[in-house]
Amino acid sequence: xxxxxxxxxxxxxxxxxxxxxxxxxxxxxxxxxxxxxxxxxxxxxxxxxxxxxxxxxxxxxxxxxxxxxxxxxxxxxxxxxxxxxxxxxxxxxxxxxxxxxxxxxxxxxxxxxxxxxxxxxxxxxxxxxxxxxxxxxxxxxxxxxxxxxxxxxxxxxxxxxxxxxxxxxxxxxxxxxxxxxxxxxxxxxxxxxxxxxxxxxxxxxxxxxxxxxxxxxxxxxxxxxxxxxxxxxxxxxxxxxxxxxxxxxxxxxxxxxxxxxxxxxxxxxxxxxxxxxxxxxxxxxxxxxxxxxxxxxxxxxxxxxxxxxxxxxxxxxxxxxxxxxxxxxxxxxxxxxxxxxxxxxxxxxxxxxxxxxxxxxxxxxxxxxxxxxxxxxxxxxxxxxxxxxxxxxxxxxxxxxxxxxxxxxxxxxxxxxxxxxxxxxxxxxxxxxxxxxxxxxxxxxxxxxxxxxxxxxxxxxx
Amino acid sequence: xxxxxxxxxxxxxxxxxxxxxxxxxxxxxxxxxxxxxxxxxxxxxxxxxxxxxxxxxxxxxxxxxxxxxxxxxxxxxxxxxxxxxxxxxxxxxxxxxxxxxxxxxxxxxxxxxxxxxxxxxxxxxxxxxxxxxxxxxxxxxxxxxxxxxxxxxxxxxxxxxxxxxxxxxxxxxxxxxxxxxxxxxxxxxxxxxxxxxxxxxxxxxxxxxxxxxxxxxxxxxxxxxxxxxxxxxxxxxxxxxxxxxxxxxxxxxxxxxxxxxxxxxxxxxxxxxxxxxxxxxxxxxxxxxxxxxxxxxxxxxxxxxxxxxxxxxxxxxxxxxxxxxxxxxxxxxxxxxxxxxxxxxxxxxxxxxxxxxxxxxxxxxxxxxxxxxxxxxxxxxxxxxxxxxxxxxxxxxxxxxxxxxxxxxxxxxxxxxxxxxxx
Lengths: 462, 423
Description:
By secondary structure, chain A is mostly helical. Chain A is built from 15 helices and no strands. Chain B folds into two domains: 122 residues, no CATH class; 218 residues, MetI-like fold.
């Protein structure tokens, strides 16, 4: 009897409870009509829900709880068994043996690397089965006790609907708070690991050092190869400079052309095509950049005289990233231009200004806050972009302004540090979290700023 | 004629003056230039998309074709006279397993094409022969001519991109009509492999599917409930503001950060199985939820207040108003937003790299907790391979991914057009 089967059993019994509750309430209704036993407060279906929820929820809560506490109980029981008597007292190696034995007992692993683990497998199987049956029995008992209690409370004057709706409201509030929990979770997980990182490497070196080549060993002083300045520069160079040089003019002019000049027919066709550009996965852009754009740009660089141009150059990644951002800039600009009151435009045209003069002197200045907000969001998106730079930009962090040189970014290094053979307690892995925290804080500020600007601007014209 | 009391403010502009005419011409020229610049911006964006698609399709279509070599098997001699009856019934599996099929295939190729030809065929060829023998045991008693897939070097040489050496072999074989090209069913039904001629995307596609099921199962209810609460019930206070800021910010947090969250919370703290589609789905659910909330709120906002007032007026409770009336009317909009969010999740790679879905996985995952990979991750893995045969496979996998994404987006647009109500 595994967890899934138990879950379905509980849900099936819950359905029975629902039908029971509803039937019971229908009887109340019938009796109420015939025998004048009093008015039934809620529709029968709410009595069904009342009973079913009372029966199922405690059992489910217990199942979750049991899932969390039972591993500790199981390993305690295994440690008390005679097979575990010979285990060393060192908690680290003991933990490794226990987790291996557990993996074999649960069928995740075929055979043991450590002979001691193999010896523990039968004890583990026995303990797992023992606590599984206990959990199973308590879950079912809880279900029936709760169901009986709720059944005893089913009366014609029970406020079943109010109670069920109160619970629904609670669920709605819980669902909305998941957003906050996620934000806090991101903060907590990143800060926790970053603090551990700063026990190895000082924040001063991390934030102001200019050499990035992370190594496993950490010496004294401020030059261990954990200086993130080259990465910050690389991220800004690719995401906020090259990509924006491509995306801002193209995105802005596309929005202007589509809203002000294009015929409705053309607009109907062009807007979805731009949206496709936004829907192409970043891994596809990355492959495009690495396969097609990067060699082209390197050949071009060699042709104009940069002999040592890298094939993983910053320019290719930046340009492709810019293309990816075009729809974002364009749609934000589109929205803000559309929000400018028509009277301003009409006034300008009535004074004899041409269309382009109206756009340049009236519409764009009026729409500027919205456009700036869109650009901030675009920058935030570009510096957090991973796949394009992983596939097209390099892994060596150079502090250079030469767009034909190889350059590395924060996201590339996070990916490089966390995939591959990782030692979860070494400074290399922890450095990835410090970089992640930096990235999160910067994008967070950019997003908040952008949302503020856009909101203020909307209010100004509403 | 002029009235001495009314002085004209200034003389009317003389538009026939050549200087004026020149100015007007300049302004019109500027207008045309600006318009042209706008047109070029749109054209350039469309061109970029076109080049991208053409490159992928041009590279990728070959990935759907597999070159096959004609090999004549003198099976009675090669198997030293095994009978067809031994391949039937209960002991059939054991009988086939006891045959050295790899040796048989190698020998047959060598007999026909000389001693250098052992690596003409893919590593998969013996298994294909096994399947054929299982389907048709009588084959073992006769000489049979079988088309088997060739290894990657000859495969891409036949398609015109191979090395000089492989091109020569392919040209000779082609001249003798020993090679043919057929649709690569293996690409749709197999998983990752070391030889690019043997790879398939089914394993990755199934991994993506399992991941998306988890994502949908979590992100959809949570997202819709949150949207309902924020739009219909939330009081105006600090907490509500905090929730709104969190959601709007989460929608713009870099996806790799969600990967880090998944790595720490799901893998390290909760000890969930690494590389599994369960963890991948949970991580992507956190990423997709804000998208669904924002789309859901817009859809709910679009339902006119008169519907709510009418329902309240005939005695429905606030919960009944929403679940019986508002939600069904807002559902098409919510579904559209959900599909777009799921399409984004399907194309997402970076967070899945963080939680270890990058391993080489040669069989499709059996369940949610098995080690799995996803389609975009598979594309990334293949793009990293040095073997030239992987170029066409990567592009072919991209074509499949794009077809899925376009299909989902088309469905979203269809739903929006079909069910959208203008009040």
